[in-house]
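look at this one:
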Amino acid sequence: MSEKGADQASAGRRAAIVIAVTAVLWVAATMIGSEFGLTQRELALFDLMALGGFLWAVWMIYNIWRARQDNQG
């Protein structure tokens, strides 16, 4: 595998880890928040943080896609 291919594979793994960790933390925060009786406003904060994590992962994936397009052309 070329150096660029290895870098792209590593970036893909990082994006997958960000998605997985964000999802697990989001579910955990929602469950814990429900148990402790947090308000909907407080739970919405966790939702917004999760949205930020998912958007960051989408940005990472977009950059990987652009790098692959540059390698092909």
